[in-house]
Design a protein that fits this description.
This protein has 226 residues and is an alpha/beta fold. The protein has helices at 9-16, 30-33, 39-55, 73-77, 80-83, 95-104, 148-151, 178-188; strands at residues 2-6, 21-27, 61-67, 88-91, 110-112, 114-124, 127-132, 168-169, 172-176. The chain folds into 2 domains: 2-118, Rossmann fold (3-Layer(aba) Sandwich), CATH 3.40.50; 133-201, no CATH class. The chain binds iron/sulfur cluster (2 copies).
Length: 226
């Protein structure tokens, strides 16, 4: 899922300063699960903004509500008239939700309330780790499920580099060396010979290096209006 965290309040205050009718808009999926932008967080942030405005003697109407997904037109349409009643929307969706709102309803003033961090999962309550960079050509079958693109600081396809020491990455002693992990996993599965196979350079055009990507699935495609 997408992992995000709330922007510093000082930044939010500055973004919203010119506006009086403000909607803090939560999103019901990833950001709810990672406890950054669901209904609870939207209500808490709206309360904080109200307190700040009162302290600063600045008038404001601040409301909070949540839609199922800000990254799909259909869910935005369900609350479209309500959204048009605000001077500014502080979106607690990831960056995708913010852009979907703006592209679908250009008249809205939408600001990001979160910093979108990465794709990953929670390893413990309150701890999330990054696991995929969306490279567009998955190599997990070559590394037995450990992503070298994401988890190696150099995204090496043939590792480890000379900086690997005692299982840790040269970038930080807190960071496991991805290629050390891959080595140990291949060894445990009796597939260590894979380490000796040289992987050719990756075609990065399928990743973001080739520019923003689009997927068209003719088998499920339905033109809007059909
Ligand atoms: S190889 Fe690419 S698609 Fe697969 S997990 Fe890593 S970044 Fe994601
Ligand atoms: S030490 Fe390991 S994880 Fe760090 S850059 Fe080198 S191969 Fe990648």
């Amino acid at each position: 899922m997408i992992i995000a965290e709330r922007k510093p309040f000082a930044q939010i205050k500055e973004m919203l300063a010119p506006y009086q009718r403000i909607c803090v808009l939560g999103c019901g999926t990833c950001v709810t699960v990672c406890m950054a932008g669901g209904q609870k967080e939207a209500e808490e942030l709206a309360a904080l903004i109200r307190i700040q405005r009162k302290q600063d003697r600045q008038e404001a109407t601040v409301e909070a509500f949540t839609i199922e997904r800000q990254c799909e037109f259909e869910f935005i349409d369900q609350v479209l008239e309500r959204l048009k009643g605000y001077d500014a929307i502080l979106s607690l969706a990831c960056g995708i939700g913010v852009q979907t709102l703006v592209e679908h309803v250009p008249a809205l003033r939408v600001m990001p309330g979160l910093n979108t961090k990465f794709m990953g999962y929670p390893v413990a309550q309150g701890v999330w780790v990054e696991r995929c960079l969306g490279c567009g050509d998955c190599v997990l079958h070559l590394t037995e499920g450990i992503c070298p693109i994401t988890r190696c600081a150099k995204s090496l396809l043939n590792g480890p580099c000379g900086g690997s020491a005692e299982g840790k990455c040269e970038v930080s002693k807190e960071l496991d060396c991805a290629w050390h992990l891959i080595h140990d996993r291949l060894a445990s599965l009796g597939r260590l010979s894979l380490m000796a196979e040289i992987q050719p350079p990756k075609d990065w055009s399928s990743s973001h290096h080739g520019g923003p990507r689009t997927i068209v699935r003719e088998d499920v495609k339905l033109d809007r209006g059909e």
